[in-house]
Specification:
alpha/beta, TIM Barrel, Lyase, Ornithine Decarboxylase, Chain A, domain 1, 2 domains, nine-stranded mixed beta sheet, eight-stranded parallel beta barrel, binds pyridoxal-5'-phosphate
Length: 433
């Protein structure tokens, strides 16, 4: 069973024995993130097994921003995945993990000039997001006298979802930007257009959306062939695949919510590409994030206090939405490792400890009777959690890696208290003593 596969896969508990959780809590304190090595690796393998796109060569690039704990990024590469990065820091991290630049896809709407230079020098693929950026890449490549490998990110606005929100990314076919980009590429000797890129959303459950946007890509492939008389090497369909992790978005009915079938996505994209590439020469790149990482981390915390308010238990935990911002829009499954009895104590709301009324981690959960000090495990806490967390009022907790169900290693240290002020300076002038 795995958290990442087709629709028949089941939500998976961490399967970690309560004794192990108690000893992790004792040794590292709470809250503490648990990164689950086997689950993550199994998700990487399952995704690679299920995602096929005809006979095309497929490259999967793990999306660092989803969860950039170094131990997980390294595990992804050991499992054969390349890297998708969106900042100079992530680009440096991928290089520091020993990746060859050719295994790195550099995305995002803002790429500082020095990071463009680094990407060119290391032969990473730069996915150009705007005409301004294309100019920056062309000038930098000319200055360096080195070719820039690029892809063009397209803006396929599919359906009437939140199309315009995603419209800030990439180049639009409709607005003539792709056309203008191809003219600029034609006039440059150092720009090598190798691929086209799209990324149409996250937590997607509907393979139709991939098919529709692949059609948009097919039109662009046609256009490149006609205008540049050149064949592309790859099509990058981005990430966005929802995971069978047990977490569901507030916008969905839990019972009806079905994660996407990745083999269906691969088939649909392949059949669209066959229209413009019947010999299947184009490679396909994917950039999975959530589907690999969501179920691969849990947040272990403790009950701080229990209060009754209008007949409902209000439970305050020592971990809040500053660590798990996804709780604002996601139902995370909870389990209660300190309680082995099944006796329910009725519905409870679980709050975080930070000083805002919005710090609600889970509402109306059927939970056993709980007391201060009891452990609570928040599941499916591995996607856009630590990377989106912040130091609202305190340092961030450690992350430990669990391997083989029992080996525990510290993979990210707890930040020190002085993280709140260590990078600050007091002005030297005009201070009253
Ligand atoms: C360009 C790009 N690729 C890949 C991803 C990963 O998406 P997901 O975690 O939904 O698979 C994202 C996430 O926002 C992205 O922006």
């Amino acid at each position: 069973m795995t958290a990442c596969s087709n629709r028949d896969s089941k939500n998976r508990d961490t399967g970690l024995p309560p004794g192990l959780l108690t000893s992790v809590a004792r040794e590292y304190g709470t809250p503490v993130f648990l990164a689950l090595d086997e689950d993550f690796r199994e998700n990487c393998r399952t995704f690679q097994r299920y995602f096929r796109c005809g006979r095309r060569r497929v490259v999967h690039a793990y999306s660092y921003k989803t969860n950039n704990i170094k131990a997980l990024c390294k595990a992804a590469h050991q499992e054969g995945l390349a890297a998708e990065v969106v900042s100079a820091a992530e680009l440096n991290m991928a290089l520091s993990l020993g990746l060859d630049g050719r295994q790195i896809y550099y995305n995002g709407p803002f790429k500082p000039l020095d990071s463009i230079e680094m990407a060119i020098l290391r032969s990473a693929a730069i996915h150009v997001d705007s005409l301004t950026e294309l100019e920056n890449v062309a000038t930098t490549a000319d200055d360096l006298g080195k070719p820039a490998r690029i892809g063009l990110r397209l803006t396929p606005i599919v359906g009437d979802r939140d199309g315009l929100v995603w419209g800030k990314f990439g180049l639009s076919l409709d607005e003539g930007e792709v056309d203008a980009a191809l003219s600029r590429i034609q006039s440059s000797t150092q720009i090598h257009l190798e691929g086209l890129h799209m990324h149409i959303g996250t937590n997607l459950t509907d393979s139709d959306l991939y098919e529709k946007s692949a059609e948009c890509m097919a039109d662009a492939i046609d256009m490149v062939q006609q205008r540049l008389n050149r064949n592309l090497q790859y099509i990058d369909i981005g990430g966005g695949f929802s995971a069978a992790s047990g977490a569901t978005p507030f916008t969905a009915h839990t019972e009806e919510w079905q994660p996407i079938s990745v083999d269906e996505v691969g088939k649909r994209v392949d059949s669209v590409l066959n229209r413009v590439d019947p010999d299947q020469r184009l490679n396909v790149v994917t950039e999975p994030g959530r589907i690999l990482a969501e179920a691969s981390m849990a947040l272990l915390c403790r009950v701080v206090s229990v209060k009754m308010r209008q007949g409902r238990r209000q439970i305050v935990l020592d971990a809040g939405t500053n660590l798990l911002p996804t709780a604002y829009y996601t139902r995370h499954p909870l389990s209660f490792p300190s309680r082995d009895d099944e006796t329910l104590g009725g519905a409870a709301d679980f709050h975080g400890p930070i000083c805002t009324q919005y710090d609600l981690m889970a509402a109306e959960v059927s939970a056993p009777s709980l007391s201060p000090g009891d452990l609570v495990l928040i599941h499916a806490a591995g996607a856009y959690t630590y990377t989106f967390s912040c130091q609202f009022v305190g340092p961030r907790p450690p992350v430990v890696l669990i391997q083989s169900g029992h080996t525990v290693s510290l993979v990210r240290e707890r930040e020190p208290d002085n993280i709140l002020w260590q990078y600050d300076h007091l002005p030297t002038d005009g201070q009253k003593s």
